[in-house]
Amino acid sequence: MFQVDENYTRVSEFVIVGFPSLQPEYFVLVAWLFFFLYVTTAVGNLLLVVMFTLERSLHEPMYIIMVSLALSDIGFATVALPKLIARYWWNDGSLGFHTCFFQMHMIHYFGSLNSLILLTMALDRYLAICFPLRYPTMMTNQTMAGLTLFCWGIAHIFPGISTINFSLMPFCGPNKIIQAFCTTMSLKSLVCVDTSRQYSLAFAVAMFILYVPLAFIIFSYICIVISVFCCSPQGRMKTFSTCATQGCIISIYYIPRFFVYVTPFIPNLTMTPDKSIATTVFYSLFPPVINPFIYCLRTKEIKQIFRRWLQKRKGHGQIVAVTMSN
Questions:
Q1: SUPFAM superfamilies attached here (predicted)?
Q2: Any idea which of 58-67, 111-120, 128-137, 167-176 has the lowest mean pLDDT?
Q3: What pLDDT sits at residue 254?
Q4: Largest pairwise CA distance in the chain
């Protein structure tokens, strides 16, 4: 098993350090920034969920995916941000041993889940554009709901392997995590024994769950581009607009992750802790913040629902004003 002194003192808690070079006078400002990101993420994505619940016209496969992504983004922000906010607001970065591993598991879980959701989204667009006549029978609400539940379930398997492996390792100090939250990479340097084998396994699992879906996404987009050349110019522009939006989100999600994961394996390529943390925070928090705005602003049906809600509210306000004047 692990070769370590039997008299070592087991770490009972970890401490989230965050940005190691950040000066204390900026702590409150950073806390407010993360608080704003959390509220924006939660409110924006919750609005999508509420809209889907109230509007039966949105009960279609594409919107089931969007709601799944919204719930995943809310879950990730809720797991990752409160402790980071507390770290800079009240200088409270401590996490219990098992709490840290729970956070690590859930952060990697939502990362894996988002990758599978993006895969499902690409599959849905691929079928809708390349097989438009067969799409209604191939992708029903029941089929999409089943795929979504499958993604939410199987996403636990991949990070679970790393969580179990690392939780069984001896941690005998130090206990300071130079990262914004507990992750496999941040805990790797705190283990008292050689972790090269376990980290290689975790790396392989991460590459599988991230880049196998990405390979299919790229394949589906190539097929979509080939297919839309047969469309009318108007349909071509609409398709490219939809794909460009999703492609932007996918690029933000995958490309920075790739650099963070492969940096330890490339000689003479290093990232300072602050740059590594900033990159992790960017690819982890930026997509959940902008996803609801992108899909609300670029989806025709959702914009129409917003207009109808605003008109109803305006009409209700006029009725109240007339009643009060009488």
A1: Family A G protein-coupled receptor-like
A2: 167-176
A3: 77
A4: 85
Determine if residue 224 is left, alpha or beta; phi over 0 gives left, psi from -120 to 50 gives alpha, anything else beta: alpha
**DSSP-assigned letters across all residues of 130-183:** HSTTTHHHHS-HHHHHHHHHHHHHHTTHHHHHHHHHHHTS---S--EE-SSS--
Could you tell me if 274 and 19 are in contact, meaning their C-beta atoms sit under 8 angstroms apart? yes
Residue pLDDT, tens place only, 158-186: 888 888 888 888 887 788 888 888 888 88
> Whole-angstrom Cα distance, residue 14 to residue 179?
11
Averaged pLDDT score across all residues of the chain: 81
Q: Write down the pTM of the prediction.
A: 0.84
Q: What is the pLDDT of residue 88?
A: 93
Which tens digit of pLDDT belongs to each residue from 280-312? 888 888 888 888 877 666 666 666 776 776 777
Please name each of the domains of the chain with its CATH number. 13-316 (1.20.1070.10)
- Strand ranges, E, within 154-303: 176-177
Q: How far is CA 22 from CA 17, 58, 77, 98, in A?
A: 10, 45, 22, 27
Q: Considering only CA atoms, which of 281, 276, 285, 286 is closest in space to residue 20?
A: 276
Side-chain half-sphere CA neighbours of 297 within 13 A:
8
Which whole-number Å values give the CA distances from 20 to 11, 69, 77, 177, 257, in the listed order? Answer: 21, 32, 22, 10, 21
CA nearest neighbour of 209 among 144, 160, 244: 160
Nearest to 122 by CA among 210, 225, 218, 226: 218
